[in-house]
Amino acid sequence: MKLATFDINSSGKRTIGVCHNGAYVDLVARSGGTLPADMIKFLKGGQAAMDQARNLLAGVEGGAGQHVYAEDEITLQSPVPLPGKIVHTSCNFGSHLQELTTWKDPVWEAHNWSDFHFEHPTGFLEAPSSVVPSGAQVEIPVFTRQLDYEIEIAIIIGKEAYRVGAEQAFDYVAGYTIFNDLSARDIQAREHSNKVILMGKSFKGSCPLGPWLVTLDELDDPHDLDMKLRVNGIVRQDSNTGQMHYKTAELVSWWSHMGLYPGDVITSGSPPGVAAGMAEPKWLQPGDTVAATIARLGTLTTRII
After folding, report:
1. From the CB of residue 114, how many other CB atoms can be counted at a distance below 10 Å?
2. Of 65-69, 79-83, 221-225, which gets the smallest average pLDDT?
3. CA 201 to CA 276: how far, in whole Å?
4. Which of 71, 77, 106, 126 has a CA 20 to 30 Å removed from the CA of 188?
5. Residues 261-305 pLDDT 10s
6. What letter would DSSP give residue 139?
7. Which is higher by pLDDT, 302 or 189?
8. How many of the other CB atoms lie within 10 Å of CB of 31?
9. Rounded Cα distance, 158 and 193, in Å
């Protein structure tokens, strides 16, 4: 299923549902209110809620039926509009780590990237309030002149996990979506020099997430999905989820030591092709459209203003 959170334009009501045959099925209304209108609460319902959702799709053919809406009748939100936490995995694509060493910025170069290790995943937290949906307009922060992009696959946790072994990790995964890690590189570089990271990655609108939560049963292999990010139609990043150093099981297992809860997001890290890795960086500018596409997951679109 492609689980979605959306607003019904005619009423302004927010609900959860499924993108099915090009239309949006309101699961809450079709269940008579027995399913919650909040994705985190839905995920807490576990397998029973998932099974009920699949049963409610019966009879919805060709994008028609009761409580079924066309795309122009709804406003799509991020599948999890306010996750409990976003755990960002750093430099999980070796080629991205390599390209970061080429950026000729004195503050950035002061950070010794050769010290980066792969003994276990490393990363940082991003502010859940920075999440915006596909189609959102994101304003360039007044404090940066170096706005960058990063396509990533995002793991959505389905049930509470603590000290989970890698062999059981998929039991705690609800599915996947797309994440675009918008980054203020000049601020990030200064923060790195102080051995911290916050505003460079957690400004308003810096975490586009969506368009849907695609459940595990929809994917034969989540580690063989093509990833492409385009700026104004031009491909900037072109990779595959198979290039991740740490895969889903290892990431969930490691980050579960902090305690993971339904709706939490773990990101994969970015493949190469970011602006910071260019000899002459092409930073995002007002009017740019960023389209992050991952096979089987859809396209996450962000408009820069």
Report:
1. 7
2. 65-69
3. 14
4. 77
5. 999 999 999 999 999 989 899 999 999 999 999 999 999 999 999
6. P
7. 302
8. 16
9. 36
- Name the average pLDDT for the chain: 93
d(CA 225, CA 244): 11
Three-class SS of residue 108?
Answer: helix
The confidence score (pLDDT) of residue 119 equals 83
Q: What pLDDT sits at residue 66?
A: 87
Who contacts 300 (Cβ-Cβ below 8 Å, separation ≥6)? 134, 177, 178, 179, 180, 208, 209, 210, 211, 291, 292, 293
Per-residue b or e along 32-56, where b marks 16 or more CB atoms closer than 10 Å to that residue's CB: eeebbbbbbebbbbeeebbebbeeb
Res. 112: pLDDT tops 60: no
One-letter amino acid for residue 86 of the chain: I
Cis (ω within 30 of 0) for the bond into 272? no
In degrees rounded to 5, what are phi and psi of residue 98?
A: -65, -40
Residue 29 has pLDDT above 70, yes or no: yes
Lookup: tokens for 142:
């007044």
| Encoded amino acid at 141, one letter | P
Overall average pLDDT of the 46-74 stretch = 89
Pull the structure tokens for residue 150.
């990063």
Task: Return left, alpha or beta for 269; rule: phi > 0 is left, psi -120 to 50 is alpha, else beta.
Answer: left
CB atoms within 10 A of CB 195: 7
- The residues, ordered by sequence, that sit 6+ positions from 192 with a Cβ below 8 Å of its Cβ are 107, 108, 111
